[in-house]
């Protein structure tokens, strides 16, 4: 099977070489080159006529021509690039907003915890001040009682010593 396949490949290669040689022999001449050039010129002139007619017809129908469509497609590509850029920026801004919201929540929680601690400290300080004031008041009261008793004692002795 392998030899049959190689034989067919060889036959096709041989046929291809013969066709290529035949084409080369027929096209490798001045006559062919001039005839081909004249045919190409005729084709290009017909193409120009068709383009002019098509452009006029499109203008009469108020339809865009090839150049206008190409310019429009370029503008559309530019717009798509700008939209992609804006979409990316929007994504980045949204991501940052989410991060900022998370950070704000953390800061808020920290402030709430700090406020609780400060309120406890303020209450403790006020309680200590009240205790100190009560103690000072008690000491003053004791002093007044002591002073009052001394005065009573002094007044009482003076009254006794008076005739």
Descriptive report:
This protein is mainly α and 163 residues long. Helices cover 94% and strands 0% of the residues. It is built from three helices and no strands.
Classification by helices and strands: mainly alpha
Rg calculated over all Cα atoms? 55 Å
Termini gap:
162 Å
As an assembly, this protein is single chain
Sheet with the most strands, sense and barrel status: none
Strands, total number: 0
Overall form: rod-shaped
Strand content: under 5%
**Helical element count?**
3
H and E order: HHH
Low-confidence stretches: none
The overall pLDDT average reads: 88
**Helicity, as a percent range:** over 70%
Concise account of the structure shown:
The chain has 163 residues and is mainly alpha-helical. Helix content is 94%, strand content 0%.
Descriptive tags:
163 residues, mainly alpha, 3 helices, 94% helix, 0% strand
SSE layout and pairings?
Layout: H1 2-27, H2 30-60, H3 66-161
